[in-house]
Design goal:
12 strands, eight-stranded mixed beta sheet, alpha/beta, two-stranded parallel sheet, 23% strand, 41% helix
Length: 269
């Protein structure tokens, strides 16, 4: 029914070019998403298919999860694709978003200098790895931008009850790609999503020093902004949400690889 309505609007726009039906804004959907989906190249890969299938023009705004949620709360976007479970649940429970759906996942990894000065690679657990960083003279670079990755990092520090001293901890307020570059230049450790890491690793001298475990799983979800709170393009937002969780959208996410490596694992079903 929704697709029939789209074509009716297109037809009426042609017949009555000076009428309200000609408003091109009705065809634009504003999607706020994370820098990791942007930096990984996934959006460039799937958006042409999404737009062709839905009939909507999708304008993306790349931001950390915290900023994307604030944009949604203000009604500045129509739909968000984010990865910070507790913040997402609070967002929905407060009535700012509806139709929260799983889309895909990968994991976080700890990366650092190849010589691993804090001996992170010998750690028996994630907590032990971060305790080694906090107790050593090694430098840790934090995104410091309230992104999903930054929130995960802070969660880990809270779990061990300490953090590196101020001389060993740098908040840079940057997206994931830039944060990796800074950490590499400084010979520091950082936490990154695996997709951005795979996309960037050829340009870096650092390596993965710790990975694995349920605590490092990185789930992405799509949330439509509540149309009862804000005047948004609700049909367009739902078209994006339906497409990215559809069989075709999920298949395309699964097929996106770099050097044979999958960057995301689709799990809408």
């Amino acid at each position: 029914m929704r697709h029939h309505l789209i074509w009716v609007i297109v037809l009426l726009s042609c017949l009555f070019p000076h009428s309200t039906f000609a408003d091109e804004n009705s065809k634009i959907v504003l999607l706020a998403t994370t820098t990791s989906t942007e930096n990984s190249g996934l959006l460039d890969y799937i958006l042409p298919y999404m737009e062709a299938d839905t009939g909507y023009i999708v304008r993306t705004i790349s931001a950390g999860t915290g900023k994307a949620l604030r944009m949604g709360q203000a009604g500045d976007v129509d739909v968000i694709l984010v990865h910070a479970e507790q913040s997402e649940l609070a967002f929905v429970q407060a009535g700012h978003g509806v139709n929260r759906r799983r889309v895909m996942f990968n994991d976080f990894v700890v990366v650092g200098p190849a010589d691993d000065p804090a001996s992170i690679g010998y750690s028996s657990s994630l907590k032990a790895a971060f305790e080694r960083i906090a107790s050593s003279s090694a430098l840790f670079v934090s995104r410091g931008d309230d992104s999903g990755t930054h929130q995960k990092e802070l969660e880990i520090w809270r779990s061990i009850g300490k953090q590196p001293n101020e001389n060993g901890y740098r908040e840079v307020g940057q997206g994931m790609g830039k944060t990796l570059q800074i950490a590499d230049e400084l010979g520091a450790y950082t936490l990154t999503d695996r997709a951005t890491w795979i996309f960037s690793e050829e340009r870096l001298s650092m390596t993965i020093v710790f990975a694995g475990g349920q605590q490092l799983q990185n789930q992405y979800n799509v949330i439509t902004i509540n149309p009862e709170r804000h005047k948004i393009n609700y049909p367009g937002a739902m078209a994006v949400s339906d497409w990215i969780t559809s069989e075709k959208g999920q298949r395309l996410i699964r097929s996106y690889r770099i050097k044979g490596q999958p960057l995301f694992y689709a799990n809408a079903d």
